[in-house]
Amino acid sequence: MIVELADRLKKLPPYLFVEIDNKKRKLADAGHDIISLGIGDPDLPTPKFIIDKMAQAIYEPDNHHYPLQWGVGEFRKQVSTWFKHRFDVDFDFKTEVLTLIGSKEAIGHFPLAVVNPGDVVLVPEPGYPVYNASTLFAGGESYFMPLLEKNKFLPDLDAIPADICKRAKMMFINYPNNPTGATADESFFEKVVAFAKKHQIVVVHDAAYTEVYFDQRPLSIFNVEGARDVAVEFHSLSKTFNMTGWRIGFAVGNAELIAALAKVKENVDSGQFNAIQCAATEALAHSDRVEVRALLDIYRERRDTLVEGLRSAGLDVPMPPATFYVWGHCPQGYDSMTFCGKVLEEAHVVLIPGVGFGPSGRDYFRAAVTVDVQRIKEAIERIKKLTW
Ligand SMILES: Cc1ncc(COP(=O)(O)O)c(C=O)c1O
After folding, report:
1. Is the CB of 103 within 6 Å of ligand 1?
2. Tens digit of pLDDT for each residue in 178-223?
3. Where in the chain is the domain with CATH 3.90.1150.10?
4. What pTM did the predictor assign?
5. Is 204's C-beta closer than 6 angstroms to any atom of ligand 1?
C-alpha cells in the first residue's frame, strides 16, 4: 500500500463472520455438502411480471440516459399510492418521496446529511452493521442501545443517559427487526416520536422488512402522529419481491430531511437505472398479486419447519412474527461463536453467530429461512444428531 488508508476504515469493527466463512470454505472445498441458513437473501426468483416489465423498459431509449436526481416521477407517484393503500398515509411524491439504490444506500448516506463530527447517533444492537459504519463515516459516535428479550427487543429509551440524549442528533430503529425478528407496536413508535421531539433527534426507521410478516401487518412510523416532524423511513423492494440484486428502494418522510438526503446523493450517485424504476413501479402497483402474496406462505412453512425442528433438537427458539430470520438461544454453556462453529463443523450447517450483530447477541444464533423446506428438514436432522 503506497499510503496509509483513512482512519475511518480502521474504526470499523472487525468482521466477526470471517472465522465462520473460512471454516465453511474449507469444508466445501473438502467436498462436504453445506446447508447455509446464513444469508438474508431470498433464494426464489423475482416474479415474472416484474421481469417482463424490465424487458420492455430496457428497450426504451428514454431510459438510457442519466436518471433524474430524485427518481422517476411515475415510480415516486406509485410509491405514494402504495403507501396510502398499505399504511393509509399520504405523501407528496414531489417532496416527500425519493428513489434509493436499495435501502442500504440511504442508511449509508443519510448520516452525511445530519451528523457532524462528534455528534452521537443512537444505534440498536444487535443490529444491521451499516448503522454503526455510516455513523463512523460521518465522524459521529455510536451509542449502542441494547435490544433485550425482556424488553421484546425494543430499545429502552428511558435507560439512555441524559448527557447522551443531549449530544444525540439521530437515532436508527428497525422493525420488523433484523436479526431478532421482533415487531414494534403503535405505542413504541409514539414513544420514539415523543423522545425525538423532546431531545431534538432525527429518527431513521429502517423498514426493509415491513412486507415479510406472519401475524399482524407491521406498522410504518408514520402511522403515529407527529412522526413527519422528525422522521424518515427507508423501504426496500429487495425482500418483498425477491429483488435484492436489482438495488431499488425508496425513502419517505419529512420533506426537509428527504431534500437533505437528496443533496448528499446528488453529489455521490446519479440515481438508479430508469428501467429498474419502471419495473419497480410495476411491482408496487401489483403488490397484491398471488405470486407475491404466496411468498409469505412459503416463508411461513419454512419458518414453522425450522422453529419446530430446532425445538425438537432441544433448542430454545422463539417463533418470530416477521422477517425471514429465526433468532434462537444457544444451548447452555455455549456462546454464539462456539455453538455456530460446532454446528458448522459437525453438522455442516451454517448459522450466523449473534455476537456479529452486537454484544447483546452473544448467546444467540440467527438462521435465515432462505432455503427450501427439504433442505431445512435435512439441516434439522443433522443438528439433532449433535450433543451439547
Ligand atoms: C435491516 C436491514 N436493512 C437494510 C437492508 C438493506 O436492504 P437493501 O439495500 O437491499 O434494500 C438489509 C439487508 O439485508 C437489512 O437486513
Report:
1. yes
2. 999 999 999 999 999 999 999 999 999 999 999 999 989 999 999 9
3. 7-45+290-384
4. 0.97
5. no
Q: Is 203 helix (H, G, I), strand (E, B) or coil?
A: strand
Cross-strand pairs, 184? none
Q: Using one digit for the tens of pLDDT, what is the confidence trace for 44-69? A: 999 999 999 999 999 999 999 999 88
- DSSP code, position 158: G
3-class SS at 89? coil
* Residue numbers in the chain where pLDDT is lower than 50: none
Determine the Cα–Cα distance for residues 100 and 46; give it in Å rounded to an integer: 19
The preferred substitution site among 128, 323, 357 for testing ligand 1, maximizing ligand atoms within 8 Å of CB, is: 128
Q: Which CATH number fits domain 48-285: 3.90.550.10, 3.40.50.300, 3.30.2130.30, 3.40.640.10?
A: 3.40.640.10
244 ligand 1 Cβ < 6 A: yes
The three grid cell numbers given for residue 216, joined into one nine-digit string = 399482524
Instruction: Please indicate whether residue 206, judged by its CB atom, sits closer than 6 Å to ligand 1.
Output: yes
The ranges of the chain annotated as CATH 3.40.640.10 are 48-285
* pLDDT 10s digits, 364-376: 999 999 999 999 9
302 φ, ψ (degrees, to nearest 5)? -65, -45
Name which residue sits closest to atom 5 of ligand 1, judged by CA.
104
Q: Could you tell me which CATH number the domain at 7-45+290-384 has?
A: 3.90.1150.10
